[in-house]
Design goal:
The chain is an alpha+beta fold and about 850 residues long. The protein contains 28 helices and 35 strands.
């Protein structure tokens, strides 16, 4: 027998796949009656090199794609690059390299790395979103949405970095400062482009109910982000007009049942009334402080509560003699409702924290179940649950739900409010003040306003001759690029210098992949009708909200623009969010992060290889370049081969959970590959082929055939159910069992050949290079990647035994293994059950009154 050598085997089989063009998707006409399977992983940002942490996402998708192909599906499994974005501009500013050069160099490196993994990618459909051939069509989509009235311009709050002269995303604001410049961030209002995603709020929310192959967690996150709230809009009458002349303040609330617990009104920092009072020093100081938070809802939510009394008062809608103060507060969002709330501190933690800080009254109005109205009090924690209303006049004694309805009815009768629905979802701001993005196809004319770029002038290409030697968007200061004639009147005009949010790039790429290499239009309706929706989408849960929500919106918008034929508007039928690959972290004596290859571990102690100094071993965390706890894919493959990496990341834990990368785990995967290969290689020369019929056999050969067909069923069920680690465990078990059979009688050899041929096909989606080598060693025809997935024989796969749980007085205390269909008497069952230690302990001191046996199901012992 020989050892398996991945350095020789893996390049050989990758070349064979490429030569035969195995993974090119067939056209519908070529596929005939074969069902289709569109498998897609969230495409990567080309940031540099692929490391082991990236491999799990792609390995999982590849298992599905290879499995489906072997089961007779016409598979589309493409790959591309989400290539626009700030990192390329940062590289340009830091290293003087053009974003295009930096991006394409990274794409080349990452493509080579991904190809090392042996992924079954149809590379003929590859594209990068920074390719003019891609973003030219994105500009056509933008114009189609604009024509459909799904695009608008309006003023919006942004995080502004005064040093870099650019808008920052919320995640780029760290402790109130720009992540790159370190300058305090300002909140500004700029004219921005928006997609009207709110026009589809109801459809996007109701569509979640149809996504039964999405994780419940992701569906809940989407629903919460859309945030449909039913409640009331209340008009609070000011005791005297506000500086802007307003006589009422509108407040939306989902809890009008707590109105009698109100102690204040709070306005958002950018509410019109707050702004009109900014000439007061205390209000100006408040606004300056809140501006440091930026626009991130998460940062605002976590910030210490801050407010200022605006010196105004309102009358309670149910009691005109009851006056409440009006404050401005940093936790009130102008984007929710009317940008104002009423504070009912006993029932809302934010309101309670605010009231305690500023000495405002706290009046409980919801009595929790079982609580005593005479003693119930709110101290440091608000009660937000249901209950019975009290201290609330006409609402007393009602449940919270009934009180909400009664309060709304009263408001409507008094003319002080009405029932209303509001949404958390806001229109999608797509403007970005940067160079490396898709140019927005619009022109600003002094006479005509903002007009679309005519079709015949598309695409609007990015200029290459830009400089990054000063902050801000290079497109703004380019000497010629932005200067054009107005297409409507011919006067001198300027191009739009904002570029599109990169989430736009990734919102429609699934349709472009399906369409092939079109040149005349963004998507091919016929191809989209055939391939979409994506059958299996794989990616990180960090994209559970924005990317997926935007893609769902764009699908509906393209449908309504008659660009695609996708009636339900859902682009992804199945979604799986994989866990991360984690690794221990290391820091040097100087406090610098160290990579694993810079550290030596000896008897639990860690030292820096270069200096011999002690290294601090930190937490096990997600592999990330920032903490340098990554393992480079190319160097790992050079040492162990790609199949070891694939096998390890799929085997150690359920795919939705994190998996820790360890040297011991790697060595275990390497040993198993050698063990599997030696099992195959031990089949004597001259044995039957892996697809030769076995015939009727008995004894050892029949036992092996049963093991083989049970393995087929178990692994098939594991892959089908996205339980890859379970499938891997069954492969381990099968290899262990088949190694016990070394007979050379003709019937045993035939069963061994069948079993090993099955084994090669079962591991093909997981370890494709090794599987090809095994298939060739067994004399299998063609490539195993093109072989049919094995079917199991129902009789051979049936279990001969069953495991019966044993209950004592209704609680499980043990198990009993019995032949399937065995007619156990009560006496037999009791005798065998007593042999179980757990059952014996449970029966100590008790008398068995009755034994109930449900054949093949359960044994229940009643004792007293």
């Amino acid at each position: 027998m020989t050892r398996y050598n991945p350095k020789e085997s893996e390049p050989k089989w990758r070349a064979a796949w490429a030569e035969r063009d195995v993974f090119r998707a067939l056209t519908p006409a070529q596929a005939g009656d074969a069902p289709k399977a569109y498998v897609l992983e969230m495409f990567p940002y080309p940031s540099g090199k692929i490391h082991i942490g990236h491999t799990r996402n792609y390995a999982m998708g590849d298992v599905v794609a290879r499995f489906k192909r072997m089961r007779g599906f016409n598979v589309l499994h493409p790959m591309g690059w989400d290539a626009f974005g700030m990192p390329a501009e940062n590289a340009a500013m830091k290293g003087g390299v053009h974003p295009k050069t930096w991006t394409h160099a990274n794409i080349a490196a990452m493509r080579a790395d991904l190809q090392l993994l042996g992924l079954s990618i149809d590379w003929s459909r590859e594209f990068a979103t920074c390719d003019p051939e891609y973003y030219a069509h994105q500009q056509k989509i933008f114009l189609a949405l604009w024509k459909k009235d799904l695009v608008c311009r309006k003023r919006s709050k942004v995080n502004w970095d005064p040093v870099d002269q650019t808008v920052l995303a919320n995640e780029q604001v760290i402790d109130g400062k720009g992540w790159r410049s370190g300058a305090p961030v300002e909140t500004r209002e700029l004219e921005q482009w928006f997609f009207k995603i709110t026009a589809y709020a109801d459809d996007l929310l109701s569509g979640i109910e149809t996504l039964n192959r999405w994780p419940d967690k992701v569906r809940a996150m989407q629903a919460n982000w859309i945030g449909k709230s039913r409640g009331a809009t209340i008009r609070w009458a000011l005791t005297s007009p506000a500086p802007d002349g307003a006589t009422d303040i509108d407040v939306f609330t989902t809890r009008p049942d707590t109105l009698y617990g109100a102690s204040f009104l709070a306005l958002a920092p950018d509410h019109p009334i707050t702004r009109r009072l900014a000439d007061r020093p205390e209000v100006a100081a408040f606004l300056a402080e809140t501006a440091k938070l930026g626009t991130s809802e998460e940062a605002i939510e976590k910030a210490p509560k801050l407010g200022v009394d605006l010196g105004l008062k309102v009358r309670h809608p149910f009691d005109p003699n009851w006056e409440l103060p009006v404050w401005a507060a940093n936790f009130v969002l102008s984007t929710y409702g009317a940008g104002a709330i009423f504070g009912s501190p006993a029932g809302d933690q934010r309101d309670l924290d605010f009231s305690r800080k500023y000495g405002l009254p706290v009046k409980p109005v919801v009595l929790p179940p079982g609580a005593d109205a005479a003693t119930h009090a709110i101290e440091t924690e608000a009660y937000v649950g249901p209950g019975v209303i009290y201290n609330s006049d006409f609402l007393d004694g009602l449940s919270t739900d009934d009180a909400i309805a009664a309060a709304i009815a009263k408001l409507e009768k008094l003319g002080r409010g009405e029932g209303a629905t509001t949404w958390r979802l806001r229109d999608w701001g797509v403007s970005r003040q940067r160079y490396w993005g898709c140019p927005i196809p619009a022109i600003r004319c002094g006479s005509c306003g903002v007009v679309p770029v005519p079709d015949e002038q598309l695409p609007v290409l990015l200029p290459d001759d830009v400089a990054f030697d000063q902050p801000g968007n290079p497109l703004v200061r380019h000497p010629t690029w932005k200067h054009v004639d107005c297409p409507a009147c011919g006067a001198a005009a300027e191009r739009e210098t904002d570029t599109l949010d990169t989430f736009v790039d990734s919102s429609w790429y699934q349709f472009r992949f399906a369409s092939g290499n079109l040149t005349d239009r963004p998507v091919d309706k016929d191809q989209v009708r055939y391939w979409l929706p994506v059958d299996q989408y794989v990616g990180g849960v960090e994209h559970a909200v924005l990317h997926l929500l935007y893609a769902r919106f764009i699908s509906r918008a393209l449908r309504d623009c008659d660009l695609i034929d996708l009636p339900a508007g859902e682009p992804f039928a199945g979604l799986f969010t994989q866990g991360m690959v984690t690794h221990e972290t290391y820091t040097s004596a100087a406090g610098a992060w160290l990579s694993p290859d810079e550290v030596e571990l000896n008897d639990g102690a860690a030292v820096e290889t270069a200096t011999g100094e002690s290294v601090e071993r930190g937490h096990v965390e997600k592999m990330s370049k920032s903490k340098r706890n990554v393992v480079a894919l190319d160097s790992f493959v050079a040492d162990y081969g790609a199949d070891v990496a694939r096998w390890f990341v799929l085997s150690d834990s359920p795919p939705e959970r994190d998996v820790e990368w360890t040297d011991a785990g790697v060595e275990g995967a390497w040993r198993f590959i050698q063990r599997l290969w030696s099992t195959v290689d031990a089949l004597p020369d001259g044995a039957p082929g892996p697809l030769d019929p076995v015939g009727d056999v008995g004894g050892e050969a029949l036992a092996l055939r049963k093991l083989t067909h049970k393995a087929i069923k178990a692994v098939t069920d594991g892959v089908d159910g996205f339980r890859f680690n379970v499938a891997v465990a069954h492969v381990h078990e099968f290899v262990n069992e088949i190694r016990k059979v070394d007979g050379t009688a003709p019937d045993v050899l035939a069963a061994r050949a069948e079993g090993l041929g099955v084994l090669a096909r079962l591991v093909a989606p997981f370890m494709p290079h090794l599987a090809e080598e095994c298939w060739a060693r067994l004399g299998g025809p063609g490539l195993v990647s093109e072989a049919r997935w094995p079917d199991w024989d129902r009789e051979l796969a049936a279990d001969d035994t069953v495991v019966l749980p044993i209950q004592v007085n209704g609680k499980k205390r043990g198990e009993l293994r019995a032949a399937r269909g065995a007619a156990l008497t009560a006496e037999d069952a009791e005798a065998r059950a007593r042999a179980d230690d757990g059952v014996a302990r449970a029966l100590e001191g008790l008398t068995v009154r009755k034994v109930i046996v449900v054949p093949d199901r359960i044994i229940n012992i009643v004792a007293g």
